[in-house]
Amino acid sequence: MNKKIGLKEAISIGIGGMVGGGIFAVLGLAVSLSKGGTPLAFLFAGLLALITSYSYVKLSIAYPDRGGTVKFVNQGFGKSVFSGGVNNLLWISYIIMLSLYASAFGSYGPNLLQIFSKTTDFHIYASAIIIIATAINYYSIKVVGKIESYAVIIKLIILISFVIIGIFGLIGNPNIGQLSIAEWESPLKILTGGMVIFVAYEGFELIANAAPDIENPDRNIPRAYYYSVIFVILLYVIIAVVTVGSLTFSQLATARDYVLAEAAKPMLGKIGFTIITIAALISTFSAINASLYGGSRVSYEIAEDDELPHQLTARLWNHPVGLLITAISTLVLSNTLNLESISTAGSVGFLLIFAVVNFAGFKLSGNISGSRFVPFSGFLLCSIAFIILIVQQYSSNRTGVIVAFSIIFLCFVLEWIYKLTAPVKST
Fold this sequence. Notes:
There is one protein chain. This protein is mainly alpha-helical. 76% of the residues lie in helices and 1% in strands. The chain has 17 helices and 2 strands. The longest helix has 40 residues, at 265-304.
């Protein structure tokens, strides 16, 4: 009999999923897009995640399943080409997230130990961490779980300490004026900044995969989602305030890929820089570890539902073959695309997926005893955010937009071809 998951553990899953490598990877990107309005960008993205979590709450209680999002999409739209395409996109979005974490590890790693040049070291660190995490996943899932549970505690202690020390460090800091409205970008640019870094919040959906094992689900599932999302919104907004108020915009731009470590320097000097760098490496490593397992589970669930070839349910070295495919794809993506393109593609993917889940919540509102207004609002807001992100990024980051649309197109076309050619099962 499986040990039931309590409220604290369920909240930890949500917080651990969100406070992975995302904040370390995208904070500098958010600042470059939103300037003094960066805290507002994180707030916008967080509120969108909070509204979407309502649909996840209702769907998780009504349809508890380890497939999580895959189950909800199939429940809302049947096992069609559309649902298969969306679920394939979910798997690819996991791979994009893994690439984001590996890129963050590759950016922070050389600050601790430089081997060759910064560019060469980036590829060495990013590739090495994917290979090591894959080996650990093949070795033991229990080890993955232990690493994640310890990493959540370590990174939260370091980030909360950074916030507390940082707030006091803002007193008398001349750069605090950068937070004034005069230093904000236009509302549209702030919103775009929030949408580009939306990937920093997507991890709350991991609670859905644990839903069948959560004790007292009617009471604990809503609390797990809402408490974890609200906590992370507050954490991210305060981190953004401390970061923007600690360094000049030129300093933030120079250290864009490892900006959180740089922001610790005015308060704690080189020691602070090193501590945050270590926290970033631990966080991104644990996020890669957990997401590799999650990604391989998603591919397995999709194949079990006959939305991908059934061969993906086969096992290689006692693990779903999707684990190896996920790892190799991550290696390729993290070594070919820049951070902004990866982040844009990831945010586009998850905004589309969350729009679909919200619409499923709207469609199934009668079956899940839920409001029709909140999921429909979530669907509209995710759709509008999706369009704004595409339009704004097309001029400044065309590669990211082209990559995102190519992935979406391939997910649906390949699903259509598969449905067309897959043998019909006898009933």
